[in-house]
Amino acid sequence: MEKRVLFRSGWLPWLLIAPQMAVILVFFFWPASQAIWQSMQQEDAFGTSTAFVGLENFQTLFDDPAYIESFKVTALFSVLVAGSGIALSLVLAIFADRILRGGLVYKTFLIIPYAVAPAIAGVLWVFMFSPSIGVVSYFLRYIGIDWNHLLNSNQALTLIVVAAVWKQISYNFLFFLAGLQSIPKALIEAAAIDGAGPLRRFFTIQFPLLSPTTFFLLVINIVYAFFDTFAIVHATTEGGPGRDTAILVYKVWHDGFKALDLGGSAAQSVVLMVIVVALTVIQFRYVEKKVQY
Description:
Layout: H1 12-39, E1 41-43, E2 50-52, H2 56-62, H3 65-98, H4 103-111, H5 118-128, H6 135-142, H7 153-182, H8 185-193, H9 198-209, H10 211-227, H11 230-236, H12 248-258, H13 262-285
Antiparallel strand pairs: 1-2
């Protein structure tokens, strides 16, 4: 029988959620409203004079081929980061869940990357993939791959994807490991007694029971790829070569702080916010139906 909490006072529930509502108002709704208002204005570099231009900034954006190209780069980047990050962390969590000796050390090393700042993570991978002194690039040349992400767009995209996945993999790993350890061992043992192999046990028992965790991580990783990878891109490629790795969040910063197009940068931030909100709604509307709670 479902239990419900009844409040004797009508204002007590509102009082309890007031701190969280204040945080959302101050750190989301207020900045979002400011961005929307600024996106409809044309400002000089110092903000001393403004003119209301309506939707002109948005029209200029979608008439710009470079901005359309950044959409394609961001879409590919987010799919690679979310997909490969979730898949790799799930594999690592499966191995960690089966280790009996030295498991704590193994798990600790997998968690360490999450403590590294995104900019530091980008710098680490830049050094390892440096065309002249990088350890990884040296071995790539040894096997016949001429690595130079400063000139090759595909290699530059690969570098930021690898750095972004490495930074986020610890977060995904923790949730998958917790999900695997919460599955009753009796179910796995019963399937093994019935003759089900490791792969069949995983795809028929473990993975379906991990669907809530997988759905949660899918939403988080897409938001991460769109918003939280700016420092990685800035530290590794700075959007280059050319603008071939300038994802949407990096272009917002570049056009606003370097090109000093404040109105256009605000319009880009509004478009980015709408995209992420729409993707999140779509996932909850359609993908969540396949989740087994």
